[in-house]
Write a structure and sequence with these properties.
Strand content: 25-35%
Helix content: 10-25%
Number of strands: 19
Distance between the termini: 39 Å
CATH architecture of the largest domain: 2-Layer Sandwich
CATH class of the largest domain: Alpha Beta
Number of helices: 9
Mean pLDDT: 92
Order of helices and strands: HHEEEEHEEEHHEEEHEEEEHEHEEEHE
């Protein structure tokens, strides 16, 4: 436990790398325990909206999961309780220094009515990594996942039955210390809320147009791009509005003098082409600290390597190379990938004042997705909804 002098140093704005190690290990005082959860059922349950009326992130379920932490005691008692507002002091550090991280995951119902989660262990690992990056407490991923399963079962009626629909889960952690000093938070709140969702794009599984931007930068190597933290997202809102104003669905984030591809909006980016050696190759930017290690990204890479039908690479790729490949007829497909949309086909990129047409399906001029984007999307959905038995699909007993 920190001495009074240690706490004073933190209050004065000590940086994370100067913080005593025992402070960062305080989460070990009391570990997170799913067995101690207290459940308070909602007495005024709502009626879930019809699938056709769902808007992403607008309607929330009857309950929420909540666990408090402090640097003296560690993790407190978990609570599954009626969904309600949070009560925080105006000086809480989350409001001033963006000390917050989160995850995006989904619960599905298969044709037999069983509840399934898709690779939830990866979300637990990534959230712990994000928390550690901004000096929030870490937790036992298995215990938190057990709590999320209990929470999902409590709100099982909110999980849509139809394929393409799911219950979006938002695990979140915030620093709640009441202080204006820049330093690790002595208190935190870990919680999870949920909302039923349909397809991310109302237009369905249709190709989108991107605006390649060099005016703004989303992230940089050795920065925080690999962590799912709040501070990464607010700066992207203005460029997104600018792109939408010009008729583009998302930004294609470029980095550096060579205009390296990084991400598509809030998704990972994939390119399928014939490289300069004549090889058919699936390429996605490497995890160099600027790229979020997406669960869908990892799933696509794993499937592609398992299928073994073309070369699979994680390496740098530039927009001039994309432009040249399109001109020479070597670019086959391009798509984004993420939890919300799974796969988002790309049909055009505006770069340096020019709209570059991206191929879709050469066998079907009316297609809104290339054959490989469609195949990856279907393969992942088949696993998510239990159509194909796979270790990535975790049944909630």
């Amino acid at each position: 436990m920190l001495s009074r002098r240690g706490l004073q140093r933190i209050a004065r704005g000590i940086t994370a790398h100067q913080t005593p190690r025992r402070y960062l290990a305080a989460a070990a005082l009391n570990g997170l325990k799913a067995s101690s959860v207290e459940i308070t059922p909602c007495t005024l349950p709502k009626t879930p909206p019809a699938n056709a009326d769902l808007v992403f992130g607008k309607t929330f379920t009857d309950h929420m999961l909540s666990i408090e932490w402090d640097d003296r005691n560690g993790w407190g008692t978990p609570h599954i309780k009626p969904y309600d507002k949070l009560s925080l002091d105006p000086s809480s550090v989350v409001f001033h220094y963006a000390i917050t991280c989160f995850e995006g995951m989904k619960a599905y119902k298969d044709k037999d009515g069983k509840i399934r989660l898709f690779r939830p262990d990866m979300n637990m690992k990534r959230m712990n990594k994000s928390a550690a990056r901004i000096t929030l407490p870490t937790f036992d991923g298995d215990e938190f996942l057990a709590l999320i399963k209990k929470f999902v079962k409590e709100d099982a009626k909110w999980i849509p039955n139809e394929r393409g629909y799911s219950l979006y889960l938002r695990p979140t952690m915030i620093g709640t210390q009441e202080s204006l000093g820049v330093g690790p938070s002595s208190r935190a709140l870990l919680y999870c809320i949920a909302c039923p969702v349909g397809p991310y794009y109302k237009s369905g599984f249709n190709a989108v147009k991107l605006l390649a931007t060099t005016e703004f930068v989303r992230a940089w190597p050795k920065g925080t791009g690999e962590a799912k933290i709040g501070g990464n997202y607010a700066p992207g809102i203005k460029p997104q509005i600018m792109a939408a104003h010009e008729g583009y669905a998302q930004n294609l984030w470029l980095f550096g003098n060579h205009h390296e591809l990084t991400e598509v909006g809030t998704m990972n980016c994939f390119v399928l082409w014939r490289n300069d050696k004549g090889e058919t190759e699936l390429v996605t930017p490497p995890l160099d600290g600027a790229i979020l290690p997406g669960v869908t990204r990892d799933s696509i890479l794993a499937l592609a390597r398992e299928w073994n039908e073309f070369k699979v690479s994680e390496r740098k790729l530039t927009m001039p190379q994309i432009k040249e490949a399109v001109k020479e007829g070597r670019l086959l497909e391009m798509f984004g990938a993420g939890t919300a949309c799974i796969v988002s086909p790309i049909k055009a990129v505006r770069y340096q004042g020019e709209d570059i047409a991206i191929p879709l399906d050469p066998k079907d001029s009316s297609a809104q997705a290339g054959p490989w984007a469609s195949r990856f999307n279907k393969a992942i959905m088949d696993i998510q909804y239990g159509e194909v038995e796979h270790p990535w699909s975790v049944v909630v007993d």
